[in-house]
From TrEMBL:
InterPro entries: Preprotein_translocase_YajC. It is found in: Cell membrane. Belongs to the YajC family. The keyword Oxidoreductase does not apply. Its main location: membrane. Keywords: Cell membrane, Membrane, Protein transport, Translocation, Transmembrane, Transmembrane helix, Transport. The keyword Transmembrane applies. It comes from Dyella kyungheensis. NCBIfam families: yajC (TIGR00739). Signal peptide: none annotated. The chain crosses the membrane at residues 20-40. This is Sec translocon accessory complex subunit YajC. It comes from the Bacteria.
């Protein structure tokens, strides 16, 4: 069966109107904004709170280090903190290793 050439040839699609190039950038920019508010901003907030906690650290505070060692602050230096973990047993840890400050009397109850 033979068809005339005019039936076989595909008709050319109408030319698409050129889109706005800024719409192509909208999705990546939106993803970056969402990532900032979901991941980066909370991390910056935690770092700020940790720095504030370390600057408010004082002698006699009960702390827990990143390694899980609990004790009472005996001496605070520029970058190190001396923590008493048992009677007459003191260790030096970096200030940044202090994870949290416990409420007063927490070590006596444990």
């Amino acid at each position: 069966m033979t068809f005339p050439m005019s039936y076989v040839m595909a008709q050319a699609a109408p030319a698409a109107a050129p889109g706005n190039p800024l719409l192509g950038l909208a999705l990546p920019i939106l993803l970056l904004v969402v990532m900032f508010f979901v991941m980066i901003r909370p991390q910056m907030k935690r770092q700020k709170e940790h720095r504030a906690m370390l600057s408010a650290l004082s002698k006699g505070d009960e702390v827990v280090t990143n390694g899980g060692i609990a004790g009472r602050v005996e001496e605070i230096g520029e970058s190190f903190v001396t923590v008493e973990i048992a009677p007459n047993v003191k260790i030096k840890v970096q200030k940044g290793a202090v994870q949290q400050v416990l409420p007063k009397g927490s070590l006596k109850s444990s």
